[in-house]
């Protein structure tokens, strides 16, 4: 049973009474994340201004955040009282959402790199290519999430069980943490190069009004993406570092701060819609339109 592996690994089964405040926070954040990311997906669907590759990728990021919120809710309500197969499905969904978010951010980084270096606002990529890209992102993410259930686990080698996820092999945690940390580092380098290029290009551009408007639009969109990446780095890096420490059997303060890394990771799913609201005027207007429509329908007798 799942409880057996929890006992083998030495992981303490969560006691909701002891972590009531943290669990309540996760519940609030998860519900808010699900609602706001549904709002983002609806906005991108109904507003033709968002029917471009960059917004489709942002919508895919919202979908990953939406599924992350659902997975965390299931984890809170059913921490270990599930079958082995259900446990692997739940953990696999969380891993797949993490991988989808990181891969999606990499795709956004490469899309922005291509458009910025040609001083375009939107990519010339066709809708079919965007769809294939999104399908590819989820195919890779789901496959990586299923790897433990396909054999890379410690069901037959209990001495190699991790503490944070007792049925996962420590070596898988090392692989997952290193891969995602390298991916995040790569994105930081790409955006640093873009930032240096945009700053240098802006200084050399003439003062023509049309050019200034185009430059301002490009830079605003870039700033939004920068903030999204920054939130991802801040929210996910502590959890990935904990995975790495667990993988190399460093138990220092891991158990004490694990629950807080979960809260921080889930906060990332909630922050992205807030960033869109604050940074993108078109997105903000669309959000208001959707909310007003919902209010009007709610008032009808």
Strand coverage percent: under 5%
DSSP strand tally: 0
CATH topology: Rhopdopsin 7-helix transmembrane proteins
Q: What structural class do the secondary elements suggest?
A: mainly alpha
Going by CATH, the homologous superfamily would be Rhodopsin 7-helix transmembrane proteins
Query: Could you tell me the mean pLDDT?
Result: 80
Spans of at least 5 consecutive residues whose pLDDT stays below 50 are: none
- Spell the H/E element sequence: HHHHHHHHH
Q: What is the radius of gyration computed over CA atoms, rounded to a whole number of angstroms?
A: 21 Å
Q: SSE layout and pairings?
A:
Elements: H1 2-9, H2 20-46, H3 53-77, H4 84-116, H5 127-146, H6 170-204, H7 209-247, H8 254-279, H9 281-299
Helix pairs in contact: 2-3, 2-8, 2-9, 3-4, 3-8, 4-5, 4-6, 4-7, 6-7, 7-8, 8-9
């Amino acid at each position: 049973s799942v409880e057996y592996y929890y006992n083998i690994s030495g992981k303490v089964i969560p006691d909701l009474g002891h972590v009531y405040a943290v669990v309540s926070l996760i519940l609030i954040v998860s519900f808010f994340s699900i609602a706001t990311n549904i709002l983002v997906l609806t906005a991108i669907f109904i507003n033709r201004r968002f029917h471009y590759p960059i917004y489709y990728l942002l919508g895919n990021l919202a979908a990953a955040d939406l599924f992350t919120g659902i997975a965390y809710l299931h984890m809170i309500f059913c921490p270990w009282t599930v079958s082995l197969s259900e446990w692997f499905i739940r953990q696999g969904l969380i891993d797949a959402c993490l991988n989808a978010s990181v891969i999606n951010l990499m795709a956004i980084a490469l899309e922005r790199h291509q458009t910025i270096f040609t001083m375009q606002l939107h990519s010339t990529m066709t809708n079919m290519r965007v769809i294939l890209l999104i399908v590819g992102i989820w195919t890779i993410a789901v496959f990586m999430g299923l790897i433990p259930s396909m054999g890379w686990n410690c069901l037959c080698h209990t001495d190699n069980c991790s503490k944070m996820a007792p049925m996962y092999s420590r070596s898988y945690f090392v692989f997952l943490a290193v891969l995602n940390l390298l991916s995040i580092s790569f994105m930081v380098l790409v955006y640093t190069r873009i930032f240096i290029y945009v700053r240098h290009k802006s200084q050399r551009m003439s003062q023509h009004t049309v050019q200034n408007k185009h430059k301002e639009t490009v830079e605003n969109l870039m700033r939004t993406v920068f903030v999204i990446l920054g939130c991802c780095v801040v929210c996910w890096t502590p959890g990935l570092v904990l995975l790495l420490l667990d993988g190399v059997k460093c138990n220092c303060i891991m158990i004490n701060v694990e629950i807080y890394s979960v809260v921080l990771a889930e906060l990332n799913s909630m922050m992205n819609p807030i960033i869109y609201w604050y940074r993108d005027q078109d997105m903000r207007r669309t959000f208001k339109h959707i909310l007003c429509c919902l209010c009007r329908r709610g008032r009808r007798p």
